[in-house]
Amino acid sequence: MAKNLRAKIPATDTLVIYDRNAVATTNFVQEVGMTASNVGTESKGTGIVVAKSPRGVAENSDIVITALPEPSHVKNVFHNILNPPIPPPSGLERLYIDCSTIDPTSSREVANAVHSTAQGRFVDAPMSGGVVGARAGTLTFMLGASSRSGGLIARVKPVLGMMGTKVLHLGEQGAGLSGKLANNYLLAISNIATAEAMNLGLRWGLDPQRLGELINGSSGRCWSSEVNNPVPGVSPGAPAEKGYEGGFGIELMKKDLKLAMEEARRVGAKVEMGERAGDVYEDVEFAEKGKDFSVVYRWLNATPA
Predict the structure, then answer these.
(1) 157 catalytic, yes or no?
(2) How far apart are CA 279 and CA 12, in angstroms?
(3) Are 226 and 216 within 8 A, CB to CB?
(4) Distance of CA 218 to the CA centre of its chain
C-alpha cells in the first residue's frame, strides 16, 4: 500500500511511514532504495521519511492512514496522537483514514475523540483484497464517512483510489466497518465450505485443477475457490502454493468473525453458522498458528472424521 501511494502521489509530496515491526520497515526501506542512514530523515530522491512513532507521522502529515489489527491498538495509537493536541496543518483540516478492521462502536469512539477536540476529520475505510490486492493496488475500500461534511467524501476517495480500484461509500462514519464485517463473516464460512468441498472431491478421486475449474465456472464459485483456493496447484500465487505462508492469518480471520458475531448479537441478528465456524478456526489456529486461513484444508486432512 505504501509503495503504491509513493508511486502515485505528487513527486513533490513526502510519504511519512511508521511500522512497529522493524523487519517490515527495513524490507520496505530496502525495496524503495533507502539506506539505514536515511531513516528519520527524507531520503534524497525517494520522498519518504521513516518516523519514530505514529504521532511523528501525524505531526508531519496532512493525511494520516492507519491500519492496525485490534480495536485496542487503534484506540491506543489515536490516544497518543491526540494527546497533547498536534498543531493543525496550514491548509485543510488533518484527515485521518483508518483502514483497520475493528468494531464500529470502537471506531465511533475514536472518531468522536478526533472531532470533539477539533483535531481534524476521521473516517473508517476497511479494505478487502488481501496481500495480493494490496501489492497490486486492486483493493476494495468500504468507506464510512459523513455526507454532511462538505467535500469530505470527495477528498477521501482519490486517496483510497491510489491503493485500490473500488471505493464504496456505505454511509455515515462506522458504516464501512459494518459492511466489512458482513463481508468477512461470509468469507469465514465460504473458506471452510470451499476447503470441505475440495477435500470431498479429491477423496472421490477428482483432479484438483479440474474440480477447481468446475467450481469456478459454476454456482459454487467464490473468492476462496477462485483466488485463494486452499488446495496447492489450483490458484497460482495463493498461500497454498507457499506452504500457507503469508496471506490472511488465521488469527485475523478469527478476530473478524468474533467481531461480526458480537455485532450480530448487539443488533439481535440470528446467525447460525458463525459459532461453529469460530470453533473450527480456534482448532485450526492451535494446529497451524501463523498460517493463512486457507490452511483449514490441511487441518481437515490431518483431523480424523
Answers:
(1) no
(2) 50
(3) yes
(4) 28
Tens-digit pLDDT string for the chain (305 aa): 999 998 899 988 999 999 999 888 888 888 876 544 344 554 444 688 999 999 999 999 999 999 999 999 999 999 999 999 999 998 889 999 999 999 999 999 999 999 999 999 999 999 998 877 888 899 999 999 998 877 899 999 999 999 999 999 999 999 999 999 999 999 999 999 999 999 999 999 999 999 999 999 999 999 999 999 999 999 999 999 999 998 999 999 999 999 999 999 999 999 999 999 999 999 999 999 999 999 999 999 987 76
- Listed in sequence order, the residues at least 6 apart from 219 whose beta carbon sits closer than 8 Å to its beta carbon are none
Q: Alpha-carbon distance 251 to 108, whole Å?
A: 24
The amino acid sitting at 95 is: L
Pick from 187, 180, 188: which is nearest to 102 by CA? Answer: 180
Paired residues of 95 in beta bridges: 63, 121
- For the full predicted model, state whether its pTM sits above 0.85: yes
164 and 139 in contact (C-beta within 8 Å)?
yes
Residue 212 to residue 50: CA distance in whole angstroms: 43
Q: Which one of 180, 254, 255, 291 is the catalytic residue? A: 180
**Cell numbers given for 108:** 465511533
